[in-house]
Amino acid sequence: MQCAGSRLRSTNAGADLPLKGKTMFITGASRGIGLAIALRAARDGANVAIAAKTVQEHPKLPGTIYSAAKEVEEAGGKSLALHCDVRFEDVVAECVEKTVERFGGIDILINNASAINLSSTERLDMKRYDLMHSINTRGTFLCSKLCAPYLRKSANPHILNLSPPLNMEEKWFSPHVGYTMAKYGMSMCVLGMAGEFKDEGIAVNALWPRTTIATAAVQNLLGGDSMVRMSRTPEIVADAAYAILNRSSRSCTGNFFIDEEVLREEGVTDFSQYKVDPECKDEDLYPDFFV
Question: Could you tell me if 66 and 53 are in contact, meaning their C-beta atoms sit under 8 angstroms apart?
């Protein structure tokens, strides 16, 4: 279902800051798309719990929970750095409780943490298969389960999963069955939980980019510098997420959103601002999986 528009450009209106004082629990937010979403909310004055694993800098993976928390504060929000591995129930439960103790509740859950391995069936070892399913599908289910009691108390509660539309074409499965199953598990949570929580007013939606996004995964695992140049920046996903999160949770649920389509609904017509390489033609932007 499509929903009424939000106030995408509201941060330019001074006092009109719809996420001010709202609390966001976001997984995998030490870098990339997760960090961009956190910073977009922080510009409104939101409280942001950065729940991620990285506590020390990595040569190929810049950013930690502490550097992300600092950026959130500098952007105008309040932050809480949480060392969190979404594979473990006791760890997630403790992080959720710390968030509630610090900020008084949870209004928004962003299930962003994800693992990727594009190996074929015979080449994918089961440890990596288990890792993807434990983080992507199980981690999403677990965080949703543990945040639900607090979301229920919010005036406009949202769960947003960074996962694709459930496109059941063979071409999206055959090259990397294990990864697709794990990623679609996140989307199946949207399909089921949107119906499960609808009467309680908790929105559950998915958001996925039209093009590849310039993240560490694209740089290190998928296509290197050439693919990064044909990608958009994480800010396009962050702006789309912001728009969704400001829509009514009672009327906007069960959607599989594409970032560009959300922003077009918000009146955005110029997407050049999101290109990594301003000289890259629109037709040369690299399409993401599953769309």
Answer: no
